[in-house]
Amino acid sequence: MLAFYLAGNFFAMPFCSAIEEDLCAKDGIAIKNLTLRSDLWYSRNKGDCTLLSRHQVTRIKPEETLEIFSDLVCRTPYCANSPTYSYYKSLDKDGDCTIRILPEANLTDM
pTM value? Predict the structure, then answer.
């Protein structure tokens, strides 16, 4: 019986790893500004500086970077963390593709 169980697990493992795909990749990770400030700014892929109002949501996809700033010229980082998709994805503990920005640059799962 043990031999059948081990053999079954041996053949099932490749299928299990194929199921572990990134479910957030298609639509991206949603990042919501839940700070007490209404004047955060972000730059996507080192591009234009864009306002991120309080309660506003922006998304980051795997091929993008998203830096968050506290000034309207995007020079003073609000969050000193890595701006990559993989970093934001690592914060998403429950797998619902949402992250929130809290006061004092605290990024957490939503």
Answer: 0.77
Does residue 79 contact residue 69 with C-beta atoms inside 8 Å?
no
Could you read off the pLDDT of 33-52 as tens digits, one per residue? 999 877 899 999 999 999 99
The 3-class secondary structure across the chain, one letter per residue, is CHHHHHHHHHHHHHHHHHHCCCCCCCCCEEEEECCCCCCEEEEECCCCEEEECCCCEEEECCCCEEEEECCCCCCCECCCCCCEHHHHHHHCCCCCCEEEEEHHHEEEEC
* Whole-number Cα distances in Å, 18 to 7, 21, 61, 95: 19, 7, 21, 17
Phi, psi of 9 (to 5 degrees): -65, -35
For the record, the structure tokens of 78 come out as 């609000």
